[in-house]
Each structure stands twice: as C-alpha cells, then as structure tokens.
What does this fold into?
Amino acid sequence: MSQGEDEAWTFYRTGQYGKALAAFRGLETKGDVAALYGLGVMATNGLGMPRNDEKALVWFREGAAKGSREAQFGLGAMYDLSRGVRQDMTLAIDWYEKSARAGYAPALTRLGRMNLLGRGMSRNYGKAFRFFKQSAQRGDRDGEFYFGMMFIRGWGTKRDVKEAAGWIRKAAEKGQTEAMRVMSTLYEGGYGVAQSEKDALV
It folds into this structure.
C-alpha cells in the first residue's frame, strides 16, 4: 500500500469521509488502480457522497479489469448481494475466486463462508476449512474467527478446542465481536484455556 493509499484509508477509518474522498480522487487522477476500490466502497456505503451503487459498480469493474484484487472482491460482492446489478452467484463466485487467487484474505474468508453455509454452491466443510486456514494465516480477523470455530465444531478437521482458542483469541484481539463473545465463554468454562472469570469479563 502506497503512502497516499494509507493516508486515504486512515481518513476513512477515522470517519473523515470528505478528506478520504478527496484523497482517493487525487490518487485516481494519478492512475492509482487501488483508488478505484476506495471510491467504490465510499459510493456503495454512501460515505462522503450520496449512496450510488451504479457508480460503485463502474469503479469496481474498472479496478477489477486492471487487476486490483480488492476491486475484484468488491465486484463479487455487488453480484453476491445484488447491489446495482441483478444477483448472479456464478459471477460473484468467479470474482471472489479471482481475488482469492491473488491472495486477498477477505475473499478467502468469503469463499470459506459460502462453502460452510452452502451459499451459491454445495456445502463443503473441507473446502471451507482450507479457505479459512489461508485467510487466517494472512491475518484476516474474520478468517481467524471462523478457522477457530471449525476446530470447535470439528468441521473439516479434528475437533481441537485448544487450537480453536488460539485462533479465536487472535481475532478477538483485533476487535472481532463474535470472537470476543466466544472467548468469554471459553474462559468462563475453561475450554481450551485456563478457566478465568476475570478474563471472561474482560
């Protein structure tokens, strides 16, 4: 990530949407492909500008065509969630897979969830486990949480609560709210960790 992109996303994360939009537009004029994803995110969420899924779709498509793995993920989500376009799970999965092959962790997590739930495809715990493993190893907090949950349930792998706790703790420490709830339960009951009411409360 370039310094300009980092600055734009910092503005976005801190709620300074006007500055974020200006930063992304400035990067776009310089030919920064990554800026197209940022503009698409702001348009589809209505942040810094009125919500406009059609504009977001244009930016995601342009970025995806130029090889942006983030934009490929964004385009997949538009087809998945029927935002600005008719739902098409085949195209959604195709774009998610392109993004995942480029190593984008959120796309790996999304494909894991789709295999886990049987959304747009047959349910496959083994594939879900492998996708979550890849995203967790890349540090995606949702991937870490779901990877841990696969160990708790014994889905696609042998049940191992201690291994589960390690991954779920990583996600919880990054602010993943479901992971926080599960870690509280694990500490309260002493499942995979030393029992601690204090840590459960935290």
Observations:
- The longest helix spans residues 17-29.
- The chain has a mean pLDDT of 96.
- Residues 29 and 164 are 45 Å apart (CA to CA).
- DSSP finds twelve helices and no strands in the chain.
